[in-house]
Every structure is written in C-alpha cells, then in structure tokens.
Amino acid sequence: MRYQISGKQIEIGEALSTHVENELGETVGKYSQRPTDATVIFSRDAHEFQCDAVVHLSTGLTAQAKGHATDIYAAFEDSREKMDKQLRRYKRRLKDHHKERSEPVEFGAGGSYVLTGDEDEWQAGESGLQPMIIAEMEARVPVLSVGDAVMQMELAGTQLLVFRNEKHGGVNVVHRREDGNVGWIDPADLK
C-alpha cells in the first residue's frame, strides 16, 4: 500500500509516519487484503489536532474518517477507530462486492464547478443573471449499483453521491435525508 502522510503547517516526524503506516495498514488489512493507497493529512485547529484519513481500496471504493484530539497521536487513533468501525460495519458487503466484481469500479469524467453565492457578483447572461463560476475541476463519477453507491456514500462520510447506475448507465444520486434515511434519485423514469 502506498502512503502519503503530510501535515498542513505541521512537521510530521518519522516516528509518526511509521506509527501511521503500521496501525493503518493493520486496520485496513483486517477487512481488505488489497488496499491501494492511503492519504493521511494532519492539521491544527487552535489547541486541537485534526487527522483526515482516506483509504482507496482496489475495488474502487473509498473509506474516509476524521479524528480530533489535543494530541496528534490521539487524533490519528480517533480517525483510525472511526475507519475501523466503518470497515467492520461493511465488512461482509465489502467482501461480497469484491467477489462479484472482477475489475475495479469504473469511473467517468464529469465537470465540477464552484459557483459564487453572492448575487452582487452574478453575470448578466442570455437568460438573465447567472452565478459566476469561481472554480472549475474534474470530478470522477463511479459506475455502481444503488446498494454499492449507498455503501460508498457511508464509507466516505458524505451527504451525497452522484454515480452512474450499472443497470441503465444513467446518472443517479443517493443522499442522506434530514430524517436520517437515504434518498435515491433516478431520473431515468422522467419523460
């Protein structure tokens, strides 16, 4: 597994890097024999350290966890425990996902834009005022089943996931609703 361990305005020593590689490798190794790479970023917020860990699995799924503590090692342990809990919760589904899928999850390219929320900065266009684009990036859109998309959203800890449905190739969305349930938007039924 490849590791990228860094700090935002924090020096990361060799001892911490070795600790992260050993502990994270052991945690992920229990649930997935083929992780591909891990990114761990440490930062500081006032008196507290933060640890953001992202692990990409060979099946194409991504697990993500954040930890906070007053000690940098404790922040990593908090993040590692959260990731362990996520992976343990989805262990059976991860193994089932791995057996059914001979190739990693396919990704397509899509545009991702950040729009200004300030109406004073909107541009006049053909159809009236339009928000100004302040950032333009490429986003990866996975090809998944609905169940795998929900699992990926849970593992990544996000509120929303855009994906292409394996059954019909259309763009779908799963999202976390305010009542705690998961919503699924499938515009393939729209005429």
Automatic annotation (TrEMBL):
Keywords: Coiled coil, Cytoplasm, Translation regulation. The keyword Kinase does not apply. Pfam families: Ribosom_S30AE_C, Ribosomal_S30AE. Its main location: cytoplasm. InterPro entries: HPF/YfiA_ribosome-assoc, HPF_long/plastid, RHF-like, RHF/RaiA, Ribosom_S30AE_C, Ribosom_S30AE_C_sf. Residues 130-183 form the Sigma 54 modulation/S30EA ribosomal protein C-terminal domain. Gene3D superfamilies: Ribosome hibernation promotion factor-like, Sigma 54 modulation/S30EA ribosomal protein, C-terminal domain. It is found in: Cytoplasm. Residues 73-100 form a coiled coil. Associates exclusively with 100S ribosomes, which are dimers of 70S ribosomes. NCBIfam families: yfiA. Belongs to the HPF/YfiA ribosome-associated protein family. Long HPF subfamily. Required for dimerization of active 70S ribosomes into 100S ribosomes in stationary phase; 100S ribosomes are translationally inactive and sometimes present during exponential growth. PANTHER family: 30S RIBOSOMAL PROTEIN. This is Ribosome hibernation promoting factor. It comes from Paracoccus pacificus. The gene is hpf.
